[in-house]
Design goal:
By secondary structure, the chain is an alpha+beta fold. The chain has one domain (9-13, 33-175). It has 6 helices and 8 strands; from the N terminus they run αααααββββαββββ. A hairpin with a 2-residue loop joins strand 2 and strand 3 (88-96). The termini are far apart.
């Protein structure tokens, strides 16, 4: 399983979203948010939301209200119209690193993880982290070359900054082709020293 998960482990490692040029503008026809959270879309759809995250006015135009940053690795919004994801309704979403989650009113993430048949990443009394790769498809990369992998990993977890809540969503990635390793030169055959015959002993 590719544990490209959002919380709690990945939240401690996530980096801020890259800055974009000032003339970036949000796509007027953004992909469906529920489908994005449920891992039913792709990396390009996730990236279509990045200009919104960099422009609070664009977020407000979508009916999103930016929330105070309770977690330094999450950008949170309150939605005017709630979304339904994984069978639960929520008006609270968050973007973190390479993923997006809905913040659900579920005290124990293990219940949803079992329903979604996720694999365990971390399961302690304090922390719970579950995930499963939903898709990994070969595609053309930004360099125009083949062999890039567009993947989506479903995540269900909890995090200290949001007690009593479950974070459920998807992380997306576009990974370059694996580098082909050149075969190592074959080692030269080992030389075995053959002892010289002992001189004959005259009788």
């Amino acid at each position: 399983m590719r544990l490209r998960l959002l919380a709690p482990l990945a939240l401690s490692l996530a980096l801020p979203l890259p800055l974009a040029a000032a003339d970036d503008a949000p796509d007027p026809a953004l992909p469906d948010l529920s489908a994005l959270i449920e891992c039913r879309l792709g990396y390009g759809d996730f990236m279509a939301y990045q200009p919104v995250l960099r422009d609070p006015l664009a977020a407000v135009a979508l009916g999103w209200r930016p929330l105070p940053q309770a977690n330094p690795f999450m950008i949170e919004y309150r939605l005017n119209a709630p979304v339904t994801v994984f069978g639960h309704s929520s008006d609270h979403i968050a973007f973190a690193g390479d993923g997006v989650v809905a913040v659900l009113d579920l005290a124990d993430p293990r219940v949803l993880a079992r329903e979604l048949q996720l694999e365990t990443g971390v399961d302690t009394p304090e922390k719970a982290l579950f995930g499963r790769e939903m898709r990994a498809e070969e595609t053309t990369g930004p360099d125009g070359g083949p062999g890039w992998i567009d993947s989506a990993v479903i995540n269900v977890s909890n995090v200290d900054s949001h007690p009593g809540k479950t974070l459920a969503g998807c992380s997306y990635s576009l990974d370059p082709p694996d580098e082909v390793e050149e075969p190592a030169d074959e080692p030269a055959p080992a030389t075995v020293a053959v002892p010289s015959p002992a001189p004959a002993v005259p009788r």
